[in-house]
Amino acid sequence: MAFSRVSIILLHCIITLTSQKSLGASVHDSLQKKDFKYLFTMISSSKDKPAEQKIYLQAFLANAKAAKDWELIVNGYKNYADYADEDVAITYTDSMVYAAKQSRDDKLIGSAYLSKGIAYYVFKRHELALENYLTAKPYIERSADEYLKYKLIYNIAHEKYYLGKNAEAIRLFNACLHYFKDTNPRAYLNTLHSLGLVYNKAGDYGKSLDMVRQGNAAAKTLNNHSMDAYFLHLEGINEYFRENYASAIEHLKESIPEIKDNKDHGNVAVANFYIGKSLWDLKKYREGVPYLKQVDQALIDNDYIRPDLRESFELLIDFYKDKGELKKVLYYVDRLLVADSILTTTHDKLYDNIHVNYDTVELRQEKKNIEAQLSQEMTYRKLLIFGSVCLAIIIIVLTIALYRHRRRNRIFRELMENKKPTGKPVSDAPKELLIPQEKADKILSRLEKWRQSMRYLDPNITRASMAVYLETNVHYVSDVILHYYGKSFTEYINDLKIDYIIDQLKTDKHKRMFTHEALAKEAGFGTTQSFVIAFKARTGISPNFFSAKIRKEMNEKEIQ
């Protein structure tokens, strides 16, 4: 039988205390006399020496427990969490929260939950990060600690940014900006930079550059230049999207040394990617290749990848395919599969439906074809191999093109002839729903009314708002939808919106002339990108193809 969570935390505390006995008596006695500031400094400075750091971590926590100071005990566990691997770090944050609760101090409890949320954020476990932020909120509000309040808002804003809720992120970051301006120079500069990132993601490069200018001016006024390289980095990315490629390359190259000194491997990879992309758009492919390869190196050395950096592998595959260097093509196909595997795990909600040039199934097929061609290299002359490779590539390209053409037409025909289900419960639902059937039936009944009234077109739908309408809680909303429809909450809402748009395009000729942006607003999507992604996830084809195809068919019918 598994231990309860509290039992595990208590056991962890006992093990930590017991481990103090393993220290040599002289070392233990010596560190008992050191103040906590000294021990904290030594923990930080010995991060590259794990065995030595462990001694200071143990001493800090042991001294805190000896002093019976809950705040210091919480910080002792936080020290452990800051330098541990993911699973161990999360265990230490559990101990941190447990210790904070013993203090009955709202500020300490709120701070502990906030730190736990930040730990989850670092490990890209965003739902759990947000859950802990929201748990921290009432404690921090009761504590009336303004700094903690805005630190919490700042971290929630980053979750909004991650989830693509740009408007909400901007509002929260602006609230932090006003507070930090007079209280915390580094936090103020960080917030300006974060706002710049959100504006960049939203496509407002002018406002993003304005944040860069404000950040540079503030750095001079405050005589704090810790963020200079990051503002330079952001300016370079904005210049890339503004198609000022030479300026982008200059700024990004200048930002790399300091960012590299900070051991910020992720932003170094991002800088190399956009330098490579800038050179690519300038048709300087050979010069761009080494920078794109640095993205792969970051993946090899630090397991770092994010969705936009994935394109590096696609460009390298195409580059070496054009040069006929199939071994390198095969290598980067393998690397792309590795990148996809990591992205699927760490960016699941953003990545599952992302549009990419190389579908995983097609990529594996292409890999097999290339491997087959390479296996013949030992038995055929170079001229014959060259011809075979060229033919194989042509066949692959034509096969993929034909497959995609037939697949898209088949899907289109199915959509025109058989409208997909939009909310009728399935009869063979699983039996393990842990909700009373009477309650589930009531939720389903109100859910059907909600669907028939087309409330899913509301752009501000949340689980909480739906729960209010259904007269239940957010957990029951998700559980019922998953149980009866086999979908997550977001997928269920998006499918209803897309089915509505498909029906409109089939019946309203005026809607067929709408832009993607107009269709997205019609269906209640926050952004055009989210609409396009949801449409392809629901149908397997793009809205552009569907709209063009249906316009063509309807025009032909009118002519006849």
Automatic annotation (TrEMBL):
Domain HTH araC/xylS-type: 441-549
Membrane-spanning segments: 383-403
InterPro entries: HTH_AraC, TPR-like_helical_dom_sf, TPR_rpt
Domain of life: Bacteria
Swiss-Prot/TrEMBL keywords: DNA-binding, Membrane, Transmembrane, Transmembrane helix
Record-given protein name: AraC family transcriptional regulator
UniProt organism field: Flavobacterium arundinis
